[in-house]
Amino acid sequence: MIAAALLLVLASGDPPADAAPAFSPTELAAVLDHSPLPPPPHDPTNKYEQDPRAQQLGAFLFFDARLSANGAISCATCHPPDRAFADGKPFGEGLGTLSRNTPALWNVAYNRWFFLDGRADSLWAQARQPIEAADEMGSSRVRLLKLFSDDPALRRAYEELFGPLPPVPADVDTALLPPGGWPPIDAFLANVGKCFGAHVRRLVSAHSPFDTYVAGLRDGDPQKLAALSIPAQRGLQLFVSHNCDLCHSGPNFTDMEFHSTRAKLARKELRRDGGRHDGLQKVLDDPFNGAGTFSDDPAAGRVKLDFLVQGEEDIGQFKTPTLRNVALTAPYMHAGQYATLHDVLQHYSEMDDAFDHDPMRFEMMLAPQHFTPEQTDELIAFLESLTDTSLDAALTHAPESP
Fold first, then answer.
1. Which of 35, 80, 135, 161 shows a CA-CA span of 20 to 30 A to 71?
2. How far apart are alpha carbons 59 and 227 in whole angstroms?
3. In degrees rounded to 5, what are phi and psi of residue 194?
4. Which of 38, 48, 4 has the alpha carbon at shortest distance from 187?
5. Do residues 350 and 370 touch, judged by C-beta distance below 8 A?
6. In this predicted model, what pLDDT tens digit does every residue of 105-161 receive, in sequence order?
């Protein structure tokens, strides 16, 4: 039940300039909808996601640069814990420079789709792709299998979970075996992906000052209500009253869908990025998707895939990111177009730099908000209140063994 003190705030009319905002009943309901964050949902396509052995092996591999072709790039290279599991660069950098920004890994277990274009439907299907991507880690499933075969600790950890490793093909220099080329090595790669998924699903941010404040709204505790500054509270009111939560909805501040933010693109070649339109076909064609041979529950995986429809409206759309820890993960947008939160809010405020792939088809619900400088500062204060990096320190570095 909402605290009686809050009901008085709701009924008090316009507050003084230095007082907390008075939320309308509609605004209050929207605020309460954003916290608390529940536990991550279960992925039935990965039966190992809660297995401590898979979690430990996944954590070890996350920091292991031997997975890359040059022995210098690990998952943590692009997702370093001390940078909020993002890299702080406009475009991801592995063996080459990518054409999209590196998403942070906070709360990825809540996602329905993975990568900015949604071309994977599970954490384990996503995790195996960078290993073989030429511009990322540039390795292959053959090299990966040889690493596991030659390293006694990796072999032991894997075989305790999944049974014997398949034999290494005679030609270990084979750059790539295509999916379906040899099912045992595909199953091995899927299993490695499931260990990654078991690890990164634990990277959860759920206890920010905002969450403490919402708990105070529920029980009237003044110390909890003080967790949010007055400017941040005003920014929160702006956030819900200006319908920012249409896309950044729910406790994880994302609708988990795809939109065009109409953000400018600095390089013309980036305008050919089809985004979700291309990702839809890729996830349907992926032999490692949730409905495929390597899924632990193909029927459950098929539920997400059977109703996907690719249309022209998907061109140039990208996944809505969570706003939790957003203050730590600059630059922003799918191509790192904006260096600061202020730049992002300026875009949404005026939309004077709006870009559309098709002038006849664009995101209709986006309209200039015309924020004042004071309102922009208040919104930034609110977004900063979503910061929580109180993660188990053991998850920020490699375990001693797999």
1. 161
2. 33
3. -65, -30
4. 48
5. yes
6. 999 999 999 999 999 999 999 999 999 999 999 999 999 999 999 999 999 999 999
Using 50, 70 and 90 to split pLDDT, how confident is the model at 338? very high
Residue 12 has pLDDT above 60, yes or no: no
- Residues 6 or more apart whose CB falls under 8 angstroms from that of 268 comprise none
pTM of the model: 0.91
* Cβ–Cβ < 8 Å for 364, 351: no
Task: Please list the residues that pair with 308 across neighbouring strands.
Answer: none
Angle between helices 341-350 and 373-384 (to 10 degrees): 130
364 Cβ contact partners less than 8 Å away, ≥ 6 residues apart: none
Residues paired with 332 in a beta bridge: 338
Let me know: does 353 contact 263? Beta carbons within 8 Å: yes
Per-residue pLDDT of 16-72, as tens digits, reads 657 889 999 999 999 999 999 999 999 999 999 999 999 999 999 999 999 999 999
- Mapping DSSP to helix (H, G, I), strand (E, B) and coil, where does residue 258 land? strand
Bin 299: left if φ > 0, else alpha if -120 < ψ < 50, else beta.
alpha
Domains of the chain with CATH codes: 4-40+206-269+313-384 (1.10.760.10), 52-204 (1.10.760.10)
Burial 324-353 (b: 16+ CB within 10 A, else e): bbbbbbbbbbbbbbbeebebbbbbbbeeee
- How far is it, in rounded angstroms, from Cα 390 to Cα 205? 7
